Amino acid sequence: MSNKPTHRVFQVIETGKDKKFWNRIGGTWEHEDGNGFNLSLNSIPLDGRMVIRRIEKDDEE
């Protein structure tokens, strides 16, 4: 498993008409066989929804 996550986890909260707040709350790493993920969260949201997005090369820190 790599040190860097392959995906980021966000909490998405509807803040108004057509407005959403995306709060990054963790990361995921793909299993070597491609059949699952390891998930690491810094917090667990009580509202909103969680979204997992692949990290694109331009998004890397």
Our Rg estimate from Cα atoms comes to 13 Å
Low-confidence stretches: none
Main sheet? 4 strands, antiparallel
Distance between the termini: 19 Å
Major beta sheet, strand line-up: 3-2-1-4
Instruction: List SSEs in N-to-C order.
Output: EEEE
The portion of residues forming beta strands comes to: over 45%
Our count of domains comes out at 1
> Which structural category fits the helices and strands?
mainly beta
The best one-word shape is globular
Describe the SSE topology.
Layout: E1 7-16, E2 19-30, E3 37-41, E4 49-54
Antiparallel strand pairs: 1-2, 1-4, 2-3
Task: Describe the protein's architecture and organization.
A hairpin with a 2-residue loop joins strand 1 (7-16) and strand 2 (19-30). The radius of gyration is 13 Å and the shape is globular. With 61 residues, it is mostly beta strands. The chain has one domain. The two termini are 19 Å apart. Strands 3-2-1-4 form a four-stranded antiparallel beta sheet, with no helix packed on it. The protein has strands at 7-16, 19-30, 37-41, 49-54. This is Conserved protein.
